[in-house]
Amino acid sequence: MFSFFKKKPPTPTEPALAPEDVASPAAPPAADAPASGGAFGWLRKPFGAGATSVADPAAPSAGAPAAIDAPLAVPEPTPKPGGARQGWMDRLKSGLRKTGSSIATVFTGTQINDALYDELEEALLMADTGVKATQHLLEDLKRRVKETKTTEPAAVKGLLADALADLLRPLEKPLVIGEHTPTVIMVAGVNGAGKTTSIGKLTKHLADHGESVLLAAADTFRAAAREQLGVWATRNTVEIVSQEGGDPAAVSFDAVTAGRARGKDVVLVDTAGRLPTQLHLMEELKKIRRVVTKADASAPHEVLLVIDGNTGQNALAQVRAFDDALQLTGLIVTKLDGTAKGGVLAAIAQERPVPVYFIGVGEKVEDLETFSAREFAQALLT
């Protein structure tokens, strides 16, 4: 569940903007400056063909942030049915079954000996656990076997689940909403990792917990990314800030400014997918972060990376690269649904322990859930 610490929203004030990040009327914009959103006005309109724009009488008439598309109505959040968490566990076990089966075969013998540990080492490495995490788990497991005087191989699997849960526990941390108004969450990830879909699912989670959300379509690099995020905004009946062909930093700046003025609980910024080896694009991400800070000196409050659970040790490389560039605060791990090996979370815990806020096993909204070290270990080794 989310951890919410509600505080009285501060009175929105106009932030002091540095000249290098925001252009003044008398001078051309600097290298980091977002393009002005004033030309778009502060508009609200319903989705759908033929919708017309109507000026918001409560908003400034000029020099305001980017256009905001607003839904017609906001329905009541749908509560999760009973047993939803158990249903989630069943889907997670199914997704990790291939890896779990390969590890489980190690414990079908009759003796606890060097051969068993050698087979287990190979199985863990094949599960993308990585060398360092595998060695840690083997040493911890041998200690537990000795301390408990375990003699049955089948019982060793339970001890391995305990060791894995303990290794993963530092990654178990709740997403905190409410310490800042709005809480600005910047989301990054490579193309194909499920970044925009995860933002849509996260929006649903937040809305179901009573949080008002504003989306920022700052992925202007990928074709149709803005439209894809717009679909999720419609599904979740939340507002979205977007500019066709606009500068990503400008969209982000305008969204944070609008979120503050409208008293939104959360502003979710969708950034362009890119590989960490594309240095010029990584610099664009750094620019977005800097410009967001100009809109709100304390922002971004969360910087999340979406990683594909199928990419194995490459996911660890992505975590390192994006963490070095953006100082990540959390991860969303997607696509743990059949072919993913899952062991990469152990490698991340051992070498770059960035908290895992959510894991996903499919495309449906309910297929994204909060991360539990114990649940994950049990699902992987059951």
Largest sheet: 11 strands, mixed
Number of helices, where a helix is a run of at least 4 consecutive DSSP H or I residues: 12
Secondary-structure element sequence? EEEEHHHHHEEHEHEHEHEHEHEEH
Number of individual domains = 2
CATH class category label of the largest domain: Alpha Beta
Question: Termini, distance in Å?
Answer: 24 Å
Structural class by helix and strand composition: alpha/beta
From the spread of the alpha carbons, the general shape counts as elongated
**How much helix, percentage-wise, in residues?**
40-55%
Q: Care to describe what's here?
A:
The protein is α/β, with parallel strands linked by helices. The protein folds into two domains: 88 residues, SRP54, nucleotide-binding domain (Four Helix Bundle (Hemerythrin (Met), subunit A), Up-down Bundle); 197 residues, 3-Layer(aba) Sandwich (Rossmann fold), CATH 3.40.50.300. Helices cover 41% and strands 14% of the residues. It is built from twelve helices and 13 strands. The strands form two sheets. Strands 3-2-4-8-7-9-6-10-11-12-13 form an eleven-stranded mixed sheet, with helices on both faces. Strand 10, helix 10 and strand 11 form a beta-alpha-beta unit. The protein is elongated, with a radius of gyration of 23 Å. It is a peripheral membrane protein. Its EC number is 3.6.5.4. It is an enzyme of class 3 (hydrolase).
